[in-house]
Amino acid sequence: MAISYFCGPMALFGKNDPADTTDMPFFAHIEALRWHIVRGVLVVVCLGFLLFFFNDILFGKIIFGPRHQDFITYKVICKLGQKFLGDNSACIQVAGQELINTDLAGQFTMHLWVSFIGGLILGMPYVLWEIWRFIKPALKNTETKPVKGFVIVSTMLFLIGVCFSYFLIFPLTWNFLAPYQVSKDVNNLISFDSYVSNLTTLTLAFGLVFEMPVVVYFLSRMGLMTPDFMRKYRRHAVVVILVLSAFITPTSDIPTQMAVFAPLYVLYEVSIFVSAYVNKKYHKV
């Protein structure tokens, strides 16, 4: 019964027949899911393959963008500081640490990895669409209408999270940690792998974190999340978000930490509203 509810009947290349929902065996669901995954992976791989040949843009403009003084984030912060503070105290002097590669195949491996991550980000709308195609046949007509914007909303939230990390979180993190020294006797030799890993990890992590309202929506629909629960533990959530903000931006600069805290807290409050809406509409809470 649970399988029939969560896994709709999908044909090999996505042609649906809702009439077969109750008769579709378990392994047919698995087969359908497998082809949705295959199509999603193929799109990501193809986009990554194309990005592989745009090396100058992929690395010179995007990956290494936060290492350049003319990066848009630094310009905006500097102009805002000049406007509201009347001086250049807010202007960021970009850390000039060079990146080193110690692995023979290191640069080639990172080239492949960054191309794949780029393909995943660009292909996320299609991946989410495949997820929606897999779930949709299991929903009734009355259930489909409220979540028909799943792909659009999920994609927007994911991209907002990615941009938030790329344009704000990572540049601030890089300029704090790259020149950080416990002693002048210790020099920082930052590896290319470390730089790329931190950038991609933070970017994908925030992209997924910003999906919180969507996750809460479906958990609430399943009866696993309630607004009362989220309100009851709001104080705990605030503490967790503050700690997370301090960890992500390990500076003593309170405005910087608040810049990270504010959107994460807003996401939590939006999720409470989403849960309350779902419970009131579908569970009569």
Tell me what you see in this structure.
Helix content is 68%, strand content 1%. The chain is mostly helical. Strands 1-2 form a two-stranded parallel sheet. The longest helix is centred in the middle third of the chain and has 30 residues, at 106-135. The model is unreliable at 1-22 (pLDDT under 50).
Helix/strand layout:
Layout: H1 2-6, H2 26-52, H3 55-63, H4 72-84, E1 99-100, H5 106-135, H6 141-144, H7 150-177, E2 190-191, H8 192-209, H9 212-221, H10 227-232, H11 234-248, H12 254-282
Parallel strand pairs: 1-2
How many extended strands? 2
- Beta fraction: under 5%
Oligomer: single chain
Structural class: mainly alpha
Q: Which value, in Å, is the CA radius of gyration? A: 23 Å
State the major sheet: 2 strands, parallel
End-to-end distance: 25 Å
Q: How would the global form be characterised?
A: globular
Low-confidence stretches: 1-22
Mean of residue pLDDT? 83
Counting structural domains, the number is: 2
